[in-house]
Structure formats: C-alpha cells, structure tokens
Specification:
alpha/beta, TIM Barrel, 7-stranded mixed beta sheet, about 35% helix, binds iron/sulfur cluster
C-alpha cells in the first residue's frame, strides 16, 4: 500500500516529457523553509492508500496521451524515495511504454535510490546547495548523504538520465554560493551533468 497526497493529471512542460500524471507522496525528512508542499508533513492528513494495481488503473486512463506525446508518470512529493518499494512495484507492473520520471532531493538511503535505478527513465534531483551549513539552515539536515547518493547514481545510470536543480534560495544562498555548487558538481561529480540553474525557489 502507498501513502499518496495527490494525483495530478494532464501536466505539460513541468515535470517530464510529454503529457504526464504526477503522483505526489506524503512524507519528507527535510524541512525546507520555503516548502511548497507543507501538507506532506501533516500527520493529521487523510490518507489515500492505493495498491499498485489500483494506482495503475487510475494512471491508465490517460495512456493514449502518454503514447501520443512520449509522456507518462512522474513520482514526486514530499520525497517519493521514502516509498521506493511501492514505486518499484508500480514500475514493475505498469506498461513499459509509459515514461517514468522522479523528482527527488536524494535525501534517502542508497538502498532506496538503487532500488529504482532500473525503473526510472529520468531523475530530477533537487540538490538545493552544496554548502552544508547553508543546506542545514535551510532544510534542518546535513547534505552529506545527498552528494554520496548523487555520485553513486551518476555512476549507476549515467549523466544522460539526470538533471540537477540548483535554485537561488532567498536569505539562504547567494549567486556566489550557487556558482560554488555548480563548480563542485562539474569537478567532483561529472563535468557534463545537466544542470537546471534558476533564480527562484520552486520546491
Ligand atoms: S524536499 Fe521538497 S517536499 Fe521535502 S521539505 Fe523540501 S521542498 Fe518540501
């Protein structure tokens, strides 16, 4: 069973190729000060439990759109990796023709990341900031395992399947800090990794 916050259909240009359905999961171990999904931390919420088969049935309604546009399903949140086993089951059972995207901070165990390595076609990684003090002040946690996970993920699936998001976070980092994040990733992770650098916070 799963713990789903929302299912959003007919999305274009926001989270993956073609027309997609976003499946947003509850739960996240970070506490970003500008989190746009604060509901994902709400323990009083009404739970929406689906089995893998039930979720696939909901997703399948839009299969013609996926096939026409090269779209499919995007797993987001909250932090979808916290429900990696459920996502793995869904990916094993759903059509191989549906494109699979995940939006994650990589703040999870390596086992959770690795479990989905063969299931996911494209990874949007919201890395936020390389400076650990800034990361801690913004999220409440250290980013050490995030960079370990990113390094291992690049080695496992290759740079072509990953886009790293680097935002400017008002009152937390500066353009100079962000430049340092870019340089670190280029030098220490992979020189040709796709980076999405933007001047506002969107997750
Ligand atoms: S990683 Fe995303 S869901 Fe989690 S606290 Fe940060 S913005 Fe919110």
């Amino acid at each position: 069973m799963s713990d789903i916050m929302a299912i959003s259909r007919h999305r274009m240009g926001t989270d993956g190729e073609g027309i997609t359905t976003l499946v947003g999961f509850y739960g996240c171990l970070l506490d970003c000060k500008y989190c746009v999904n604060h509901n994902c931390h709400n323990s009083e919420r009404i739970r929406a439990d689906y089995t893998a088969e039930e979720l696939i049935k909901v997703l399948a309604v839009d299969e013609p759109y996926y096939l026409m546009t090269g779209g499919g399903v995007t797993f987001g949140g909250g932090e979808p990796l916290l429900q990696a086993e459920f996502i793995h089951e869904v990916c094993q059972k759903m059509s191989k023709k549906w494109h699979r995207t995940i939006e994650t901070s990589l703040y999870a165990t390596w086992e959770q990341v690795k479990l989905l390595a063969k299931d996911i076609d494209y990874w949007f990684v919201d890395i936020k900031e390389i400076n650990d003090e800034i990361y801690k002040s913004y999220t409440g946690k250290s980013n050490k395992n995030v960079f370990t996970n990113l390094h291992k993920l690049v080695n496992l699936v290759g740079v072509d399947k990953i886009c790293v998001r680097l935002p400017l976070i008002p009152q937390y980092n500066t353009k100079e800090d962000r430049d340092k994040s870019v340089n670190y990733i280029r030098k220490k992770i992979a020189p040709n990794l796709t980076l999405d650098i933007f001047d506002y916070i969107r997750c």
